[in-house]
Specification:
heterodimer; A: alpha/beta; four-stranded antiparallel sheet; 12 strands; B: 350 residues; alpha/beta; eight-stranded mixed sheet; 11 helices
């Protein structure tokens, strides 16, 4: 075990809800509400979940693009939340982000040269000649040529724009990248190209990734570890192969089963959840998943489930905890039991109330 | 006799930069009660095909050629391309319902759900307001919206995305259409909500016998919901077959590439905890061509791993039947699509 590059403990990012003439704070949207994880250098943590679960806010909070309201974020041993001015700027050179929409994330009035050079100038990296060399190198790494420098973003296709966004992120030679749905806006035939590029860059540059996506197959392929978020919390986390082979949380089971597949034998066992994700402004008491969970019991409505950990596989679920205990700590047996317990189908299931 | 038959449809946009043939000779047919999936990437012409069926292509788009035949129960056909506008309005929302990707584009924010469904009924049926409202309630029950009486008087903003899409489906079904055109109906939704909606569509199709033209880029959605599949690339259909056939044995290099480009879930079953996935994903090189500069010959040839030059850059290949009901626009399809072929050396495709 090496020292983690990034360490997040009990991270909370709440957004105030204001009302009335005096814009008084009447509540909070608890977008991220007690999230903890760490990523070792060179490794990739995949963060999955549905819209509104807080996964994007986690990514932005790490870089303080939104200010966390509680908890701690440590990067290479340094406290990101306490950092100010020059120290924060120094940290941000080492932490970069790639956004989902390469149409929105690149300024249409700037040439690629200015887009890439901005970071180098802000961080005072190199002379003009050195900057050009760095930019050319970053473009080459992403599969573009220096000819791109004198063109505008609109002259490129979506896939190429995402390559430019990645070049912008790596040009200042960071250690850590937050990849926020980096392929979701791209066509299927282009997605694989960008995924391959990200995997190659990770190997060549020794980068550490937080890979945020709702695409479960791509997350499995890219990640070493995967965390599943629901309503501001991580509900399950495990090494990728373990999580996909032996999911323990009812939400993870339902999420996996909901993804349509082209493989016929995968299709039949669909768990259809009822209802919608509740508002993060009013999270349910107890386990946050209980209103939609087919296995919910009395305890789930009252007590927030603590983490049960077997062999580095962590799950927050009362029922799963019991099954793990019954199986004598055999996660595979517990996972098989959870899969049995989950009801399949749901044609008769009503919509939300 | 198919319910809907499209023959050699050509829809082009006349822009200052020239004529852009977004749909360039598409033929399709849908049988009563069946679901046809129309698959392709952005710009392939799948949505323009759908809009052409209802003659809703916005200017400067024009249907330049082809016919679109809609048959009634007796087999009598009308050609939607030439049908007079007043009669076409009876078809839109009456005999053909529509569901779009983003439910808010089909819902008016200032009217209640009940009014909007009732309006669709009043337009096409000779009923009283009260009857139309009763029908709206029935439809909300049909699409399994909880507490439908209360929902009737609510506005679209009071509903979640999944519920709105249910309302849109209710509107589309209110006049018992023979055909529903669903353009990316679940793309804006989360997977667990998508599962609910797909489930609902499958159930409704079974109970009401409505045919569905499902337009999507998601091959998984097609595999789970469609009887037949047509794959579009650059304004043309490149492969068409029953769903089971196309996923078991794709024959067109584009379809083969699309299916191979997705990482297989659980594809690392043998991978130990902490081990990384080995190898790279297989890619289709290059990008989707814009309609202004479709390549000559086979439009896929510049990206095709199996292209043979100069043949493939010469004449546009014909769509031919390579097995019963399996049509492929590639002269070499007989040699391709052996199930093994997908596992061939990756450098061929990478």
């Amino acid at each position: 075990m090496t020292q983690p590059l990034i360490e997040v403990a009990d991270l909370q990012t709440h957004f105030p809800v204001r009302k009335g003439l005096l814009r008084r704070v009447v509540g909070a949207v608890r977008a991220v509400d007690g999230v903890s994880f760490s990523i070792e250098k060179g490794r990739t943590l995949g963060l999955v979940g549905e819209s509104g679960c807080g996964k994007t806010t986690v990514g932005r909070s790490l870089l303080r693009l939104v200010e966390p309201t509680g908890g701690s974020v440590r990067f290479d041993g340094r406290d990101v939340r306490a950092a100010g001015g020059a120290e924060l700027r120094g940290l941000r050179r080492r932490m970069q982000i790639v956004f989902q929409d390469p149409y929105g994330s690149l300024n249409p009035r700037m040439k690629v040269r200015s887009i890439l050079e901005e970071g180098l100038i802000i961080h005072r990296l190199g002379t003009a000649a050195e900057r050009l060399e760095r930019m050319t190198r970053a473009l080459a790494r992403t599969g573009l040529t220096a000819a791109a420098l004198d063109r505008y973003p609109h002259e490129f296709s979506g896939g190429q724009r995402q390559r430019i966004a990645i070049a912008r992120a790596i040009v200042i030679e960071p250690d850590f990248l937050v990849l926020d749905e980096p392929i979701s806006a791209l066509d299927v035939s282009i997605q694989a190209q960008v995924v391959n590029l990200l995997v190659e860059l990770r190997e060549q540059l020794g980068l550490t990734y937080l890979f945020i996506s709702h695409d479960l197959s791509v997350v499995e392929y890219v990640s070493d570890d995967v965390a599943v978020m629901y309503l501001g919390r991580i509900v399950e986390r495990a090494p990728a192969a373990r999580l996909y082979a032996e999911p323990l949380h009812p939400y993870t089971l339902a999420l996996f089963s909901a993804v349509p597949s082209v493989e016929p034998d995968r299709r039949r066992r669909r768990i259809v959840l009822t209802g919608d994700v509740p508002s993060p402004a009013r999270p349910p008491a107890g386990c946050r998943f209980h209103p939609r969970c087919p296995l919910a019991e009395q305890v789930c409505r009252q007590t927030e489930p603590p983490a049960t950990v077997v062999d580095g596989h962590a799950v927050h679920c009362h029922v799963a905890a019991r099954e793990v205990e019954r199986a004598g700590g055999d996660a595979a047996a517990a996972a098989a039991r959870m899969a049995e317990l989950m009801p399949v189908g749901g044609a008769a299931a009503p919509a939300a109330t | 006799m198919p319910l809907l038959e499209i023959n050699n449809l050509v829809t082009a946009f006349h822009t200052p930069a020239g004529r852009v043939p977004a749909v360039d000779g598409v033929s399709l047919s849908i049988e009563r009660g069946k679901t046809l999936g129309l698959v392709g990437e952005s710009g392939c012409g799948k949505s323009v095909t759908a809009m052409s069926i209802l003659r809703l292509v916005a200017a400067p788009g024009v249907i330049e050629a082809g016919e679109i035949l809609l048959r009634d129960a007796t087999g009598a056909a009308v050609n939607l391309v030439t049908l007079a506008e007043p009669r076409l309005r009876e078809v839109r929302g009456g005999r053909i319902g529509m569901i779009f990707q983003e439910p808010m584009t089909s819902l008016n924010p200032v009217f209640t759900i009940g009014d909007q469904i009732a309006e669709a009924v009043l337009l096409h049926r000779d009923v009283s307001r009260a009857e139309a409202r009763g029908r709206a309630l029935e439809m909300l029950e049909l699409v399994r919206i909880a507490d439908p009486k209360r929902r009737l008087d609510e506005y679209p903003h009071q509903l979640s995305g999944g519920m709105r899409q249910r309302v849109v489906i209710a509107m589309a079904l209110a006049c018992e259409p023979d055909l529903i055109i669903a353009d990316e109906p679940t793309t804006a939704l989360d997977v667990t909500i998508q599962a609910q909606i797909l489930d609902l569509l499958a159930d409704l199709r079974q109970r009401l016998g409505t045919a569905i033209l499902l337009i999507t880029h998601d091959l998984g959605v097609v595999a789970e919901t469609c009887d037949d599949v047509a794959v579009m690339y650059a304004g043309r259909i490149v492969e068409q077959a029953p769903a089971a056939t196309i996923f078991a044995r794709p024959r067109h290099p584009y379809t083969i590439g699309l299916l191979a480009a997705r990482p297989e879930r659980g594809g690392h079953a043998g991978r130990k905890a902490g081990e990384r996935a080995t190898g790279r994903l297989r890619t289709i090189p290059g990008m989707v061509p814009a309609p202004q500069n479709f390549p000559a010959g086979c439009r896929f040839h510049p990206r095709c791993a199996f292209a043979r030059l100069p043949e493939c850059a010469g004449a546009m290949p014909e769509l031919r039947e390579v097995a019963t009901g399996h049509f492929v626009r590639c002269p070499y399809a007989d040699a391709l699509g052996e199930p093994r072929r997908l596992d061939e050396p990756r450098e061929q495709i990478a």
